[in-house]
Known about the structure:
With 410 residues, the chain is an alpha/beta fold. Helices cover 34% and strands 19% of the residues. It has two domains: 4-247, Peroxisomal Thiolase, Chain A, domain 1 (3-Layer(aba) Sandwich); 257-408, Peroxisomal Thiolase, Chain A, domain 1 (3-Layer(aba) Sandwich). The protein contains 13 helices and 15 strands. It starts with a strand and ends with a strand.
Amino acid sequence: MTRVVVTGVGAVSPLGIGIDALWNGLTEGRSGIRHIQHFDTTNLDVKIAGEVPDFQAREFMDFKAAKRMDRFAQFAVAATREALAMSGLEITDENTDRIGIMMNTGGGGFPAIENEVGVMLNGGPKRVSPFLIPIFAPNMASCQVAMQFGVHGPTVTSVAACAAGIQAFVDAVNMIQRGDADVVITGGTEGGITPVAIASLSNMGALSHNNDDPQGASRPFDIARDGFVFSEGSAVAILESEEHAARRGANVICSVGGGSYTCDAFHITAPDPEGKGATRAMKQAMTKAGLQPEDFQYVAAHATATNIGDIAETGAVKNAFGDHAYKLALSANKSMVGHLLGAAGAISSLACILAIRDGIVPPTINLVNQDPACDLDYVPNVARQLDVQNALANGFGFGGQNAVCVFSAI
């Protein structure tokens, strides 16, 4: 079977613009959670989020193009530009048909919808933007990346809630192994921090209300956790067949062994408390990659800092890995960047890729009093030097969607 490798990565995150900002922040244990700056939170119960700081779309695309994109698509273009530069891939008339895109999201251009509803209520239907539909459509991140970089191969988007970012990597591997493309630009993107979204998630009881301590608000596996912090950003990787990468002399970071996705079919928002679907996805991903539980050193946990979610994932990891679960290093990058919904799994995938590259795994910060029901090694508060040969990334989403992907050293 065709081996798939990673040759470039890029990111836009609450820790800053670029992959170095993300990775340095994660490995240094810094939080990117702050009080919301983009709108007035006076009437909101939750006043914190993981906003991307200092993002200027025109630094990554021309003004006209930026005006016709919502924030989630702008993030995807910016992260893709960085990933392509790292990979050294030149897109030409000769190879463009063999380059695909698999760029997923959880919600698409939610801010555009919310904004234009306000425009219509205040100014009437004639004031509504004629570009609203093509701006908010979830596939527009993939399509805008295609237009910005001249990609003519398969261009696909799956909307899979918080599992979307992992599912993108799994489907990108499948696309290459089917022979549909030699290269796939893949990842996840999200830009949905709005007053309505914050209010809805807050009323659901999903969000942390720790407004007085933004950087300590996201507390996966800690007994004092009280929900996740809503965030935005994008994470992108360039995946290629090993043969294609070798032919052009690309620098290979690691390989991607593929993965699996399953469904709990249990509840609209809550995971199956027994973690059966998540367990099955992890086991199937390991099988797909031809690996055994004891081959793994690191798991990038989904770990949203919700009470039931962290316990369910802990149980699923123990069910999937058996006794080896207690020898794994697990970490929750959401403790530092919050929950990027459709981009969350892509951030976790990049954490696996870079952990393999650099021999270091990020910590789970804010882990002060570990929940006794969460009894694994979550790399508390300080990053750890670790020779990572095989890593696994988890992504679990509303509706019971579970996605898992495996990454390995070359």
